[in-house]
Design a protein that fits this description.
35% of the residues lie in helices and 24% in strands. Helix 3 links the parallel strand 3 and strand 4. The longest helix has 20 residues. The radius of gyration is 18 Å and the shape is globular. The structure holds ligand LP5 and manganese (II) ion. The site of manganese (II) ion (MN) has 9 residues, from loops.
């Protein structure tokens, strides 16, 4: 069984090269995988499954084609596309996962996360997150017309960019105690997440156990996929169309 883990594609109409990169991945690389895990921020923003923009439709079709060919697709929310819902998952043939999601990889107890909840030093973001993950808040916004939601999403993006410009880089990375905490709480020794856009392998020790934290890379000129082979060995690959 070959598994692929990707995150932070940030697909949007304004960056057509990212959609081409995604196309290339789905056609040339993803067919080798039996399972594909998208660990959040597939989209730059997601304003609801009823979005009628062409991008939403074309990404859905590509994922659906891959699922229909026999692949098992798993989706997790990111901080940009936390409004992805059951309708989107159903249309792609995929399954929405909770964050964190527990699984076993090569016999190792493993946690999959988007990664934003580990950034506990970013208290302004965590407060914002509590607001937008509240089901009541989401319900109220989803009942607004698409155009209102589009404008609000752009407004929040602007405010977030201004806020980030004033934040220390270290604050926007994971907090080591939060990382240790999730390893301990779930008895895991392997953690795979995205969000920080700081791709790396971080070995660490938790209560005398050797643990590994793999951070997935965001997609820009090149895409990044973490491949887990039959034996549970992990390897990070960067790719771009020729
Ligand atoms: O994603 P990234 O790396 O750029 O930044 C994140 C944090 N920012 C966010 C906000 C997203 O970028 C924007 C999400 C838009 C999605 C819209 C969905 C549709 C909603 C409405 C339509 C139905 O997640 C950033 C972190 C950074 O990661 C690193 O971890 O620092 O956090 C912030 O910048 C948040 C700010 O600190 C505080 C929030 C400011 C916005 C307040 C807007 C209030 C509007 C309320 C309207 C009801
Ligand atoms: Mn993110």
């Amino acid at each position: 069984m070959t598994r692929h883990f990707i995150a932070d594609l940030h697909l949007c109409e304004e960056q057509p090269h990212l959609l081409r990169l995604f196309d290339y991945y789905m056609q040339a690389i993803a067919p080798e995988a039996d399972q594909l895990y998208i660990l959040g921020d597939l989209f730059e923003t997601w304003i609801g499954d009823d979005d009628d923009a062409p991008l939403a439709r074309s990404v859905t079709e590509r994922l659906r084609a891959w699922s229909d060919a026999g692949g098992q697709l798993f989706l997790m929310h990111g901080n940009r596309d936390f409004l992805l819902g059951d309708d989107f998952a159903r249309a792609t043939g995929g399954t929405l996962l909770d964050d964190p999601h527990r699984m076993s990889l090569g016999g190792r107890p493993t946690l999959l996360m988007h990664g934003d909840t580990l950034c506990t030093d970013d208290t302004d973001y965590q407060q914002f997150r509590r607001m937008v993950r509240d089901p009541g808040w989401q319900q109220q916004l989803l009942s607004q017309p698409l155009e209102v939601r589009r404008q609000l999403a752009a407004e929040i993006r602007g405010k977030s960019q201004t806020a980030m410009a004033g934040k220390d880089e270290a604050i926007m990375d994971v907090n080591q105690d939060a990382v240790t905490g999730v390893f301990r709480e779930h008895g895991a020794t392997l953690l795979i997440h995205g969000h920080t856009h700081r791709p790396a392998l971080h070995p660490c020790q938790v209560d005398g156990n050797s643990c590994e934290r793999w951070v997935l890379g965001d997609w820009r000129k090149r895409g990044n996929v973490l491949v887990c082979n039959d034996s549970g060995e992990l390897e990070s690959h960067w790719f771009a169309p020729d």
